[in-house]
Amino acid sequence: MTARNPSLFLNPIAGRGRANRRLPRILKLMEEAGVHAVVHQSTGVGDLENQVCEAVRGGTTQLIVAGGDGSIHEAVNGIMEGGGGAALGVVPVGTGNDFAKASGIPLDWEAATTLLARRIADDAGPRNIDLGRMNERWFANGAGIGLDARVTQIARSYRWPIGDLVYLAAIFHAMVDGIATPEILIEADELHWDGPLTLANVSNGPWVGGMFHIAPMAKNEDGILELLIAAPVTRRRILQLLPKLMRGSHMDETEIVHASVRRVKVSASAAVPSHLDGEVQPLQSHFEIEVLPGALRLL
């Protein structure tokens, strides 16, 4: 593909179908800037990742993803599996769009499309941002172990058209089910934790679930990850903490432990839920997480 004919990868169900509905307008805005994208649609979970990987191995140097954090997660893993050479452009049409927020991409998808098309037409160079890796998978925005992974799992089961509020509803659902506090050993640079916890979150960007400002200090171009551990809490205490999590004013709460890290090892007494960029992972008990500074080229 030439610079003016980049590959555009689309998950048609991203954002509960918004990506597919907005495709004609995305293509029109790009054409107005002189960019004629070649569309590739995924057919199921993992297909976008496989298509991106094949494209990168075939020599693609620029590609665009129209979707949300799940689509970006697949694209990033496809790029890295393919050799890591391609630059990524993003049109945010997902539910939470946490990666777009972290990367300074306009959340107005039309404005983001126009800006991206102009950058491609002007041959503007990409900027480098960090990625994280957990075991054998890469992540763009964050990794979560414990409650936030359980909430993500519940949110994925909903088909309600309520946007970011789906994650809030999932928290209440998780509270009804009961708050698990597994025994977990965490070793990260100078931090050591050995005992029960509610969640451990490793953030490359400041937002999760669209509305939770979980790591307000996180920047995806500073070469570090932000580790947040929440000690065991009651249902009532969770309700008290929720507004603070949304505002990003929870960092001084007694249950919160924070450290800036480059590498972290996590061992659980039994297999626990986890997620990467909001994508639920198989149950695991051992995690090795590290930052890869400047590993992704962002258009």
Helix and strand topology:
Blueprint (H helix, E strand, L loop, with lengths): L6 E4 L7 H15 L5 E4 L5 H11 L4 E6 L1 H13 L5 E6 L5 H5 L6 H13 L5 E8 L2 E3 L2 E5 H11 L7 H13 L5 E6 L2 E6 L2 E5 L21 E6 L4 H13 L8 E6 L1 E14 L2 E20 L1
Parallel strand pairs: 1-2, 1-3, 3-4, 4-14
Antiparallel strand pairs: 5-6, 5-14, 7-10, 7-13, 8-9, 8-13, 10-11, 11-12, 13-14
Question: What structural keywords apply?
Answer:
single chain, 299 residues, alpha+beta, Rossmann fold, Tumour Suppressor Smad4, 2 domains, 31% helix, globular
**General form:** globular
User: Which architecture name of the largest domain does CATH use?
Assistant: Sandwich
The count of helical stretches stands at: 8
Element order: H for helix, E for strand? EHEHEHEHHEEEHHEEEEHEEE
Q: What name does CATH use for the topology of the largest domain?
A: Tumour Suppressor Smad4
The helix content, as a percent range, equals: 25-40%
Summing up helix and strand content along with how strands pair, one would put the structural category as alpha+beta
Q: Supply Rg.
A: 19 Å
Biggest β-sheet: count, sense, barrel? 14 strands, mixed
Tally the beta strands.
14
User: How many angstroms does the end-to-end distance come to?
Assistant: 15 Å
Number of domains: 2
Strand content: 25-35%
Q: Which CATH class of the largest domain?
A: Mainly Beta
Overall mean pLDDT stands at 91
